[in-house]
Amino acid sequence: MNEEDFQQDFTFDGEINKTKNLKSKKKNKSNGFQSFGLSSPVFKAIMKRGYKVPTPIQRKAIPVILKNKDIVAMARTGSGKTAAFLIPMFEKLKGHDPNSGPRALILSPTRELALQTLKFTKELGKLTDLIATAILGGERLEEQFSNLHAHPDIIIATPGRFMHLCIEMDLKLYDIKYVVFDEADRLFEMGFQEQINDIVKRLPSQRQTLLFSATLSKILAEFAKAGLYEPELIRLDIEMKLNENLKLLFFHLRHDDKTALLLYLLRSIIPIDQQIVLFVATRHHCEYLKELLEQQQQQQQNLFSAVTIYSTLDHTTRKINLSKYQTGKARILIVTDIAARGLDIPSLDNVINYHFPATPKLFLHRVGRVARAGRMGTAYSFISTDELSYLFDIQEFIGKTIKYAINNDNNNDYHLIFGNVPQTIIDEESDTIKKLTEINIDLINLFQVQQNAYQHYLRSRPTSTYASIKQMKQYHNQIINMDIHPIFKQNYIAEDLTPNILIQQLKTFRAKNTIFEVNPSSNNTACAIMKRKRAHDEKLILKHDKKDQSLSEINDDDQTKTLEVDNLTITIQDPNELDNDNNMESSRKKKKKNRREVDKEFFIPYQPADFKREKGLEIQSFERQTNEAVMDLTNDDGTQIRGPTIQKTKWDRKKKKFVTVGQTDAKTKKIKTESGQWIQASYKTNAKIEYIDRK
Questions:
Q1: Which residues, including other chains, have CB under 8 Å from residue 116's CB and lie 6 or more apart?
Q2: CA nearest to 396, candidates 464, 448, 447
């Protein structure tokens, strides 16, 4: 064998090795379900189901679950969370064990969700011999006794009925090693905390617990810390960052003018082929706006078609309304924050914040639904004067500067612009609302109810930070002198905007003279004192005016600057004391400190500009992560946002003392089930004994 043949063989072998390495790299880089190392029956069932690529929550959760770790996963409905806990469950249970009790328990808040999970479980597990059964309220106990005697491997249940069966059958749950709380936020919201705690006490300590929730309330975070062992919080980064394709528009107006602006946006700004989600504070606002839009829809078809979803809406109506919106039969979905949890609408175009969110997390929770999967989207925010401080909180959290509308600004980019609304638009739409209200008595009643509910909402709304309130005061003059938002200028010519300019000038008008100087010709002592006072403080007044002028000329395009405005305190002194001007001026100069100007070329700040945003996304311990992720939502029902009521007491003749109304003994204690019925807390009805006797 000569040297050339050896070299050719060596080259050929090297090419074979290269192709093998490339193939192995492609396999390793695979983003499909095969990268999880699943068994053949589970993988084939997934492929037959038609799934090719795991969703983001599946890609993050499944590997962690397969490592036998407890998790708290924040995922919305429709994000693939059901498969995220079913696939590892099939992989762990393998096959049916006739000599064992139930080995997996899935708790769901409603019958509908439990039945949907059962159907999906049977489809994914059809290539295995695992047995799954549902324990739901509203069904015969005898049938459920029979199902549990068949030694099922998987139990999918609602908490109330499952706790009932545990007590009736004296059920032992020693074999359960896989527990899932599906939509845990709704489980606690619907009042199942007592039943869940009782079920958890019956479970073995050596188990794996998974908690899936759309949001993380304070109660849920405390339960996760106590009921889970070293859990891991799984949260998608996309929920904590704004999409680049999302445009944010902010409008400054009075609270009473928000409805008028809403009608104008729906009619003239937002294209008719785009859908909208409208966020409001209470369910009473949902009902009022829906009735108003229905009256408008009679005049213009499909332009104002709307459906509502709020927390106290029954499940059937909620499902019908959501289906109408998803199929395009309704253009507008009016929701509250607490009812929007878990809703997944993949192709959403617009979000309107009718009431501005009180926390940055809530703002991201709302607008994060827009501009997904490469689509463009817009978020419109209505901001009244009492909501201005929350805007500065959000600006600091997202790390982006919100620019104020400037006169003669012909820029067509409306992103992150904060501007006023033309008064002509408000007047025209307000007349329309007034005409509709005059002919509809229901609108009058609903309007008054939502006004009262808003007052209760204001009492329970979280307060903004001290820094944002201080910043709002510093930029007060700039906000007052803002121009009209540029998005309105495309539909109005310069002549139409002239009345708005005059109205804006009237708003900012401030008289130069005080009330004491109204009639200077008369011999008035107060007028003479004010003249001397004005002459004495002339330098300070000019200095303050210069600072106000410099504040209004800030260029927000460069960066947000921190301005310090001295507090000007004016006191009326005796005229005899006004002669010591030079002494006061010299002492004031001595107290004033020389401030060193910072040279930005050589100055290094002690923290980066995006410090707060990155700190919110950094890897932390579970306790700190949950504290960051906790988002308690204000209830949308007026009867539930009024705060805690005073406990009433009554005289107990037997105990000879005052007792709290509703405070009863454990023997007579009652619990509300998922069907809304009040039953004895003991749940013991001897139904199991009667069932055995009949057999």
A1: 82
A2: 464
Sheet holding 417-420, edge to edge: 306-309, 332-336, 276-280, 350-353, 377-383, 246-252, 417-420, 403-404
Alpha helix positions (H), 421-518: 423-438, 441-460, 466-474, 476-480, 486-489, 498-508
% of the chain beyond a pLDDT of 90: 25
Tell me if 339 sits within 8 A of 278, measured CB to CB.
Answer: no
Would you call 671 helix, strand, or coil by DSSP?
strand
Of 630, 245, 639, 291, nearest in space to 442 by CA? 291
Q: Packing angle between helix 81-93 and helix 111-124, nearest 10 degrees?
A: 50
In the structure, what pLDDT confidence band is assigned to residue 682 with cuts at 50, 70 and 90?
A: low
pLDDT tens across 650-660, in order? 788 888 888 77
Secondary-structure percent of the chain, ordered helix, strand, coil, rounded to 5: 45, 10, 40
Residues 488-512: pLDDT tens digits?
A: 877 665 445 566 666 666 666 667 7
Q: Which helix (H) or strand (E) holds 106?
A: strand 104-107
Model pTM?
Answer: 0.63
Measured CA to CA, the distance from residue 115 to residue 135 in angstroms comes to 10
Q: What are phi and psi of 74, to 5 degrees?
A: -100, 110
DSSP states along 288-317? HHHHHHHHHHTTSTTTS-EEEE-TTS-HHH
What domains appear along the chain, each with residue ranges and CATH number? 37-235 (3.40.50.300), 241-503 (3.40.50.300), 649-694 (no CATH)
**Coil vs helix vs strand at 362:** helix
Interval 26-49 mean pLDDT: 78
The answer to whether 228 and 211 are in contact (CB under 8 A) is: yes
Q: What does each C-alpha distance from 295 to 234, 284, 318, 336 come to in angstroms?
A: 45, 17, 22, 22
Those residues with Cβ within 8 angstroms of residue 473's Cβ, 6 or more apart along the chain or in another chain: none
| DSSP bridge pairs for 650 | 659
**Per-residue pLDDT reduced to its tens digit, 451-467:** 999 999 998 888 888 88
155 SS3 class: strand
